[in-house]
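Weekly structure sync, notes
Attendees: PL, DS, HV (note-taker this week)

Item 1: AMP-dependent synthetase/ligase domain-containing protein
DS walked through the input record. Source organism listed as Lunasporangiospora selenospora. Sequence as pasted into the shared doc:
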Amino acid sequence: MVTTVDLLPTAFKAAEACGIAREAIMVFEPEGDAVERVPSYRALLGKRQATPIKTGMDEIAYLCYSSGTTGKSKGVMLTHRNITSNLVQIQCFDADVLKEKNNIVLAFLPLYHIYGLINCLHISLITGTETVIMSKFDLPSYLQNIQTFKVSNTFLVPPVALALAKHPMVNDYDLSTLRHIYCGAAPLPKDLCQLIEKKLGIYCRQGFGMTEAAPLVACIRPGQRLDGSVGPLVAGLTAKVVDTETGKELGVGEAGEWMLRGPNVMK
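Item 1 (cont.): predicted structure, written out as tokens:
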């Protein structure tokens, strides 16, 4: 179990409930060696190179939990193929943005949730993008981090988008380095998108995803303007809308259930 010093009490309780030995808990902070005799990551590093583990593409990489929109939150089995496929899909539609110089991402989304895990962590890792990670969100710290670290890209949820558009505190900070704003997790109203652009001069690009799709399904492309839309599907993904009772495929403008097929769809 990997944790932080401030969360050790919670980690100890969780480990005890799951039957995990205290010796199997580690922290990234260097002071971990002096806290409850829990080793730090650095203390566990050896001089010998470990034997690489052979892992198949269809083996489970993450067991992420859904948001529970239709009931209780469910564990979703995402394979290495699912994760890598979605990373490639993201790189395909956002290639021009990812190639820009001096990209710095500010991440406040929880990394145990698929949105933050992929869009804030994994994409940054494979593109070598500098990323500032916040342990929790509060508006003053968020704005200060943008100013201090000259953040260029940020991933939002609608409540934070609302704060950026309307909170007077925003005027107290220099956000001029921001170039790209993405929003997901819930619908972004058209008027809110317009308010953000009016205030910051940046078009907020909305996307749609779900844990079961690892997660991105559709997103507005760079340079597109599609207010009230989540944009076109990512590459390699097909979708159709069907009647929930008959399974019959429906036409444009008809409401039904969305069915997806692609390499990023869960095991």
